[in-house]
Inverse folding.
């Protein structure tokens, strides 16, 4: 069974630009969550999508947004990038109802210069 | 109230020893407590998880101990090996959602 796939693995962007990250969950999983990991703040929850609807949202500014498609694949968008957005962005998929174990992808390393 | 506090921040253990990492939480609505292991350059990997209706769960060398009244849970790694050297995160969840609240992490180094 294929795991969670995140693309791209690495990104370098300039301040003010926008970026889109992609996540393909484990087949059959309908819940996809996104997390930001930084050395200073650790692992922080961004948002969760379930059946194409945002079900939960963390404490991040509106520049961070996401969506989920009918095949459960999800994208995360960050607009007007700031230096502080440099982080490892992780996607986690969970089962049919979302209340089972969450499995993480390898992440996308975003560097903002 | 949403925080999960994890300690220690770093831990050095000799090969064959026991590694113990502790976590505490405040939100009594939390009903699922997983532990994740993360190696450099990789995403967190689910190690073991527990729900509050049991006080202990063991899988191989890894054991979770759960104290509901104290709102604490811990990870014990028996017979620690150099290959266990990684960062370990405790987490908590509630309401059946894929929304984990993570501890700050513990960097474990197992010396041969």
């Amino acid at each position: 069974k294929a795991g969670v796939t995140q693309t791209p693995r690495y990104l370098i962007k300039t301040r003010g630009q926008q970026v889109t990250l992609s996540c393909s969950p484990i087949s059959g999983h309908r819940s996809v969550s996104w997390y930001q990991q930084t050395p200073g703040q650790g692992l922080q929850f961004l948002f969760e999508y379930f059946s194409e609807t945002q079900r939960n949202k963390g404490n991040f500014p509106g520049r961070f947004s996401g969506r989920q498609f009918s095949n459960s694949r999800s994208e995360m968008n960050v607009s007007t990038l700031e230096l502080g957005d440099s982080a490892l962005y992780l996607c986690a998929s969970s089962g049919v109802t979302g209340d089972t174990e969450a499995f993480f992808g390898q992440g996308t390393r975003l560097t903002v210069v | 109230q949403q925080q999960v506090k994890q300690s220690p921040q770093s831990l050095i253990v000799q090969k064959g020893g026991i590694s113990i990492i502790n976590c505490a939480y405040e939100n009594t609505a939390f009903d699922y407590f997983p532990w994740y292991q993360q190696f450099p350059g990789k995403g967190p990997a689910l190690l073991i998880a527990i729900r509050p209706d049991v006080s202990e769960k063991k899988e191989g060398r890894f054991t979770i101990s759960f104290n509901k009244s104290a709102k604490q849970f811990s990870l014990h790694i028996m017979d620690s090996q150099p290959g266990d050297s990684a960062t370990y995160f405790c987490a908590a969840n509630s309401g059946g959602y894929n929304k984990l609240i993570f501890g700050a992490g513990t960097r474990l180094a197992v010396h041969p």
Summary: Residues 5 and 106 of chain B are 11 Å apart (CA to CA). The interface with chain A takes residues 32, 34, 36, 41-46, 49, 89, 95-105 of chain B (CB under 8 Å). The first strand of chain B starts at residue 4 and ends at 7. The two ends of chain B are 40 Å apart (CA to CA).
